[in-house]
Amino acid sequence: MNVFKFGGASVSTPERVRNVGAILGRYPTDTLLVVISAMGKTTNALEKVTEAFFAGNKDEALQLFEGIKDEHRSMAIALGQEDTTYLNDFFTEVEWLLHDKPVRDYDYYYDQVVCVGELLSTAIVSRYLNDNGVGNQWLDVRDILRTDDNFRDAQIDWNYTGQKVQELVLPALQQNRIVLTQGFIGSTDGNESTTLGREGSDYTAAVFANLLGAEGQTIWKDVQGVMNADPKQYEHAQWIRELNYREVIEMAYYGAQVIHPKTIKPLQNKSIPLYVKSFIDPAGEGTIIHNSPIRELPPIIVYKRQQVLVELATKDFSFVGEGGTAEVYRIFEELKFRPNLTQNGAVSFLCVIDEHPEKVEALAHRAAQTFDVQLTRGLTLLTIRHYNDGLIGELCGDSSIILKQQTPETIQVLLSSSQAL
């Protein structure tokens, strides 16, 4: 039994949906749990719907959503589905909310709206596969994956979810061989939709792999496998044939987008190998990730743009360590926000964070009660594992270095411009 995960790029066009069918056809006797993301840039489009709705622009939100509906109907028709009315229930789930007025916080509405992307995608792909000889059963993952109500970063109730896997998923796999469901989303015990954080589909697949005792998990992407850098940012990016769990966790921690930060632990706990393969070249070798030591890795390059430097200084020149640092981390915890880099001085505390305007402003406002606060926006954080001096110079170029942290294995440099690699 194996778990496959297909990301949004792999189902972004009718041709690529057909390609998913061809890939599954390469495994005619395997039992497969297939997790599929929203199509293409649907999540981004649904975010704009949510933003318009929350800003009180109901008509704009409905108009934007109408465009998303049209795109999915067109996809279904292009795949030979003359009747698209089966999508209407998913459309209605969002539209009844958009006709209301926001009375809860943004994250709640984000999850109720954005979750429909995965539901539409999987429904269309499931029907296409069944129509073309790849029998499968579609399941709504929200009936299985129970979470808390920490919207946009929900935590899984493993006991309840495990019970539902036994009750719903295993019988479906025994009857159909292929079960197709959604990544990224779940629901509370009050049946409110939740999301697991961006790129959470990888994590969903890992949860199922763990609970099903899978032989392996495969993530299908548009690259050869795991690369040592984003090839769109660094032209000399190299394919890595083999990695271990720890290295991938480090990569994820520093912001590499290949694997979701939570994905590895459920696999590591049961020593389940993770494969990253190309849906463009499914016969290719790809990358395998396991628990064995790996030597002589190339430099791993992670480049995070749109960073904000937050400088906090004590107002009375007292030492920042005398309760000040703890107060900053308490604010981060309450805002559900994680700094990408921190540095302590005697009377100051520096942190580098992603540019999420609402959270940046909330952090600055809360911190200003204790500290003098200064924000510097539009910065870039470069992280290199297994670095060398020549590479640091090449990647920094003419940019000014504002902040630097260095260990024997990893260097992080905050740069004053978002210069391309």
Topology overview:
Layout: E1 2-6, H1 14-25, E2 32-36, H2 42-54, H3 58-78, H4 88-98, H5 106-114, H6 116-131, E3 137-138, H7 158-176, E4 178-182, E5 185-187, E6 193-195, H8 200-212, E7 216-221, E8 242-244, H9 245-253, H10 264-269, E9 274-278, E10 287-290, E11 300-314, H11 324-335, E12 341-344, E13 348-354, H12 357-367, E14 371-385, H13 389-396, E15 401-406, E16 410-415
Catalytic activity: L-aspartate + ATP = 4-phospho-L-aspartate + ADP
Organism: Flaviaesturariibacter aridisoli
Enzyme class: transferase
Can you characterise this structure?
The protein has 421 residues and is of the alpha/beta class. It has helices spanning 14-25, 42-54, 58-78, 88-98, 106-114, 116-131, 158-176, 200-212, 245-253, 264-269, 324-335, 357-367, 389-396; strands at residues 2-6, 32-36, 137-138, 178-182, 185-187, 193-195, 216-221, 242-244, 274-278, 287-290, 300-314, 341-344, 348-354, 371-385, 401-406, 410-415. It is globular, with a radius of gyration of 23 Å. The chain has two domains: 2-221, Acetylglutamate kinase-like (Carbamate kinase); 300-416, 2-Layer Sandwich (VC0802-like). Helices cover 38% and strands 22% of the residues. The longest helix is centred in the first third of the chain and has 21 residues, at 58-78.
